[in-house]
Amino acid sequence: MAKIAKKLTDTEIKSTKPAEKEVNLFDGDGLLLRIAPLAKGGKKNWYFRYAVPVVNDG
């Protein structure tokens, strides 16, 4: 059974600081916040993961 991610709050996002390794915070429904390591500047980027449905024209 898949885990259900709880929605991120503004406070959680602002208070999470960069670490030595990349940090991924999942917001659910394919949305995640990726925080780069300090060595790479510690930038915060949002990613949306989705799948394109396969259509059989057959």
TrEMBL record:
Highest taxon above the source species: Bacteria
InterPro entries reported for this sequence: Integrase_DNA-bd_sf, Integrase_DNA_bind_dom
Short name of one Pfam family: Arm-DNA-bind_3
Domain Integrase DNA-binding: 8-51
Name assigned to this protein: Phage integrase
Lineage, top ranks: Bacteria, Pseudomonadati, Pseudomonadota, Gammaproteobacteria, Enterobacterales
